[in-house]
Amino acid sequence: MWEYAPAPESRDIANLKPNYRMFSDGQFVEGTGEPLKTVNPATEEVLAEVSTASTADVDKAVKAARRAYDRVWSKMPGTERAKYIYRIARLIQERSRELAVLESLDNGKPIKESRDVDVPTAAAHFFYHAGWADKLSYAGYGPDPRPLGVAGQVIPWNFPLLMAAWKIAPALACGNTVVLKPAETTPLTALVLAEIIQQADLPPGVVNIIPGAGDVGASLVEHPDVNKVAFTGSTDVGKIIQRELAGTRKKLTLELGGKAANVVFDDAPLDQAVEGIVNGIFFNQGHVCCAGSRLLVQESVADELLEKLRVRVSTLRVGDPLDKNTDVGAINSREQLTKIQELVESGEGEGASRWTSSCPLPDKGFFFAPTVFSNVSQAMRIAREEIFGPVLSVLTFRTPDEAVAKANNTPYGLSAGVWTEKGSRILWMAQRMRAGVVWSNTFNRFDPTAPFGGYQESGFGREGGRTGLEAYLDV
């Protein structure tokens, strides 16, 4: 066993402030809602106090976005909009180390993921959409596609900065203005992004960022002057939003939960597959909507694969998110940790075989050791419900038809993975699996040029790529 010396990143790089304010109409202002305290999930310490929006603040932000849309942003040539979006991308790169450390402090994810995945991909989304701003007439939506107006956007806590970029960049490129509500437990990088937006001299009101709890998101979604709603989060909340907007003229996209199947055939390169399985479920502590939380293994190689998987998972290091050696960081909140523990107990109670890594866990903070369940049936809760944590359920199959049937036996449909040496089998599976994204011999690969989204209870609409522009255009 390798012994890793601690390699902590300095938290001073985050430039953490004791207080953060909401961003409305180009200024940082005190919200009139009840302030919230954001907590470091790795230590349970309070990081900062954040002012939140009231219903009146939401109204002011939407009115500011409407003014900016009517007077400036919708009238600005795409070539000029592109310059602002490109400038935001460059500033994200310049402040990348600060953003990465702050993200790990506020969210709990390992610094190597914040540094190597979240921040670079956030910048990439702004770069990519800056390129579209003056080419919308060539996107396939008619010779002169028009923006929608004000976009109300609500994002989750698992990828706070990346989800903000994922939402804001296409909206701006298409000529819309934005009011964004970050998650209650992870508002800090969104507010630093507001600093970057101010630093980029974006016209006041084009982007507004209003922290708060679910009631702030509800006020934003329900506001009569919002033309477009984009939500990423739980399926239950997505259903509430869809009911609320039914019969209105608001355009809606929902990116919700998932219970992805990661399918391994007997001809797959097993060592490579093990790495993909580990990345698929233990990346970001399993806090990923498209996590490969259901592993479907062909029966003839199931025992061999499980043995290799347990050996590999036992090497994962759980601990301080700011340590560059950490593989699995902290669960984002006590509430989420409790949910994970409850579902794991149900798996044991229903007869699945639990294997949990013997890795040591820190004394403080919200941590959960990587866990693999075998002998899982499709009727068990751990095979049906989204756990949103570092917990893998393993099922077996004998034939490709059975693999498809089991993969599709879920109310979700966000993503899937296929591991095999046969290209024809990959295409055959991809055509039959009801999932918005199907990865072949890899998992969790994201690119701003590729559309992402789901079916069924995983939501509807696509984000990213040329296809994702449609959600922000009047077509």
Automatic annotation (TrEMBL):
Active site positions, chain numbering: E255
Protein name: Aldehyde dehydrogenase family protein
Family classification: Belongs to the aldehyde dehydrogenase family.
Domain Aldehyde dehydrogenase stretches: 28-474
PROSITE patterns per the UniProt record, alphabetical: ALDEHYDE_DEHYDR_GLU
Record carries keyword Oxidoreductase: yes
InterPro entries, per database record: Ald_DH/histidinol_DH, Ald_DH_C, Ald_DH_CS_GLU, Ald_DH_N, Aldehyde_DH_dom
Keyword Mitochondrion (UniProt): no
Alphabetically ordered keywords of this record: Oxidoreductase
Organism per entry: Lentzea tibetensis
GO molecular function, one term: oxidoreductase activity, acting on the aldehyde or oxo group of donors, NAD or NADP as acceptor
SUPFAM superfamilies xref list: ALDH-like
Domain of life, per lineage: Bacteria
PANTHER family: ALDEHYDE DEHYDROGENASE-RELATED
